[in-house]
TrEMBL record:
Ranges where the HTH cro/C1-type domain occurs: 36-83
Protein name: Transcriptional regulator with XRE-family HTH domain
Organism: Microterricola gilva
Pfam families: HTH_31 (PF13560), MLTR_LBD (PF17765)
Molecular functions per Gene Ontology: DNA binding
Length: 287
């Protein structure tokens, strides 16, 4: 990961999306040569010189104080995720360059495995930092059957989205899901650019998927800890589920994702049907 290049493209994209009117500046009309704010306008809003802001936008965040970074957050109206990414880029620019390293994979404790199995009515999957399932309950496997092949390890969700054609029919809103995954990986990469497993995954997807490569270059960052998904399930048909992501403090890098349908809806009926189907599959001696 090239921190200077990433910083340059990130700040340029943020500046381009914000108009003078949105930033609270007076616009005097006329043709503007650049979309969004000019560099001198961002500098004015942040209370720094144009030369200093230009240096930052060119990728040099080394030594930039937190107060200046917070001023940029306000000037560019950054979200929480974008703010975190900006500070991560600054830390990467200020500290020594770290070599790629393998991070220890989180372990699923017996207690967490028991918790997953006890949650029989709620699809639940434990994911690692790069969205590879490391544990799940029966209903979680039933809800996402492609991720859990019978005689192989679970599939990484990002690889499934971009490299497995089945994902495009499974997710009717495939592009939304795919773009969301890219923005999550971009945020993670800014936080720890030395994570070998993450950088290997990004490199593979950028090489093999034109969509991933294009969206990765957009430098959008976003957190996806809650929301909803539309699924075209091979057994129960169309279903919309809301998801919540819970961090597992006792296993750093592990998060528990649960899925529920809105009560009294066709999706709730479909989830009930899936519960019955999953229970029958578990009880059947030929499953």
């Amino acid at each position: 990961m090239d921190t200077r290049s990433d910083t340059r493209q990130f700040l340029t994209a943020l500046r381009a999306r914000l108009s003078p009117e949105q930033a609270g500046l007076t616009s005097f009309g006329g043709e503007r040569r650049v979309p969004g704010l000019r560099r001198e306008e961002v500098a004015q809003l942040a209370g720094v010189s144009t030369a200093y802001y230009t240096r930052m936008e060119r990728g040099d965040l080394g030594g930039v104080s937190d107060s200046v970074l917070f001023a940029l957050v306000r000037a560019l109206q950054l979200t929480e995720a974008e703010s975190a990414h900006l500070f991560d880029l600054s830390r990467a620019a200020t500290g020594p360059r770290r070599e790629l390293r393998a991070k220890p994979e989180p372990k699923v404790s017996p207690r967490l495995a028991q918790l997953l199995d006890t949650m029989r009515d709620v699809p639940a999957i434990a994911m690692n930092r790069v969205s590879t399932p490391v544990a799940s309950n029966a209903l979680g496997r039933a809800l996402f059957p492609d991720l859990f092949p019978a005689d192989a390890a679970p599939l990484n969700h990002a690889r499934y989205l971009f490299l497995d054609e089945r994902s495009r029919s499974f997710y009717p809103d495939w592009e939304d899901s795919a773009r969301g995954t890219v923005s999550s990986l971009r945020l993670l990469a800014g936080h720890d650019p030395s994570d070998r497993a993450l950088m290997t995954l990004v490199g593979e997807l950028a090489t093999r998927s034109p969509e991933f490569r294009t969206w990765w270059g957009g430098h959008t960052v976003r957190t996806h800890t809650a929301g909803s998904k539309r699924i075209h399930h091979p057994v129960v048909g169309d279903i919309t589920v809301g998801y919540e992501t819970l961090e597992v403090p006792s296993a750093h890098g592990l998060r528990l994702v649960t899925y529920l349908a809105e009560p009294g809806t066709p999706s709730a009926d479909a989830l009930d049907l899936l519960r019955s189907w999953a229970a029958d599959a578990v009880d059947s001696p030929t499953s």
